[in-house]
Amino acid sequence: MMRKKKILGIILSDKMNKTRVVGEVVKRKHKIYKKNIYYTRKYFVHDEKNTSNKGDTVEIIFTRPLSKKKRWNLLKIIKS
After folding, report:
1. What integer pLDDT is reported at residue 32 of this predicted model?
2. CATH number at residue 54
3. Quick check: is 15 in a domain?
4. In terms of C-beta distances under 8 Å and separation of at least 24 residues, what long-range contacts does 71-78 make, across chains too?
5. Residue range 16-71, pLDDT digits in tens
6. Number of domains in the chain
7. Residue 1's pLDDT is what?
8. Where does residue 14 fall: left (phi above 0), alpha (psi -120 to 50 degrees), or beta otherwise?
9. Domain that holds residue 21
10. How far apart are CA 50 and CA 68, in angstroms?
11. Is 1 among the domain residues?
């Protein structure tokens, strides 16, 4: 049985109904210059009860496709 992927992130936008945009900060080293590069991955997350707000730290889990871009479900709010 395969484990579902879980991610910690911060809610960047809560303007859509039942949908949140969650950002995950990723750190990588540059191949040549060896400096750290930070960038944000954005995920569209389904929030059935509209419980989360912008700036909350949340845990999301991978799920079946819910719409064109939504592939993640809100698991729990870690910090409001």
Report:
1. 97
2. 2.40.50.140
3. yes
4. 71/43, 71/44, 72/7, 72/22, 72/43, 72/44, 72/45, 72/46, 73/45, 73/46, 74/20, 74/45, 74/46, 74/47, 74/48, 75/6, 77/51, 77/52, 78/8
5. 999 999 999 999 999 999 999 999 999 999 999 999 999 999 999 999 999 999 99
6. 1
7. 62
8. alpha
9. 6-79
10. 20
11. no
Task: Give domain status of residue 59, yes or no.
Answer: yes
Cβ-contact 9, 22 below 8 angstroms: yes
Q: How confident is the model at residue 2 (pLDDT cuts 50, 70, 90)?
A: confident
How much is the CA Rg of the chain, to the nearest whole Å?
14
**In this predicted structure, what is the pLDDT of residue 66?**
96
Residue 22 lies inside a defined structural domain of this protein: yes
